[in-house]
Amino acid sequence: MAEYGIDLTRARSKHLDRFTGDAFDYVISLCDRLREVCPEFPARPRMVHWSIPDPASDPDGYPAFQRVAAELAERIGFLQHALASDHPMEVS
Q1: Which pTM was predicted?
Q2: In whole angstroms, what is the distance from residue 25 CA to residue 11 CA?
Q3: Are 4 and 27 in contact (CB under 8 A)?
Q4: Distance CA 15, CA 8 (A)
Q5: pLDDT of 88 above 70
Q6: DSSP code string of 59-83
Q7: C-beta neighbour count of 64 within 10 angstroms
Q8: Is residue 86 over pLDDT 90?
Q9: Beta bridge partners of 27
Q10: Rounded-to-integer distance, Cα 55 and Cα 65, Å
Q11: Where are any strands of DSSP class E within the chain?
């Protein structure tokens, strides 16, 4: 992600319980398995699913991480544009 100007050296996974009581406008899931068991959130945010393969399970190694980073950067760019222009996001 450093290639995209994002420093993840201090980033850590967080358990969903950490966000209990927080309200969200959107919840974006990335993993197909989570899509099946995604919990309900208060205030019923708009649920969006981006099916992104886990690069850690790809035998291609680092290039798989580069592909996922590029795909996320593109999708996040579209998301930012949609939110800035008040266009409703298509839920997939």
Answers
A1: 0.75
A2: 22
A3: no
A4: 17
A5: no
A6: TT-HHHHHHHHHHHHHHHHHHHHHH
A7: 16
A8: no
A9: 47
A10: 5
A11: 26-29, 46-49
Q: Which residue has the tokens 């309900």?
A: 40
CA angle 41, 70, 62 (to 5 degrees): 105
- Can you tell me whether residue 46 is helix, strand or coil? strand
In the chain, the largest separation of any two C-alpha atoms, in whole Å, equals 40
What is the spatial distance between Cα 7 and Cα 1, in angstroms, rounded to a whole number? 7
Which residue do the tokens 């993993």 mark?
Answer: 31
Three-state SS at 86 = coil
Model confidence pLDDT, tens digit, residues 4-48: 888 889 999 888 888 888 999 988 988 777 667 777 888 889 888
Between CA 27 and CA 56 the distance in angstroms is: 23
Tokens, residue 43: 């205030």
Reply yes or no on whether the pLDDT at 90 is more than 60: no
Question: Which residue from 89, 92, 71, 69 is spatially nearest to 80, judged by alpha carbons?
Answer: 89
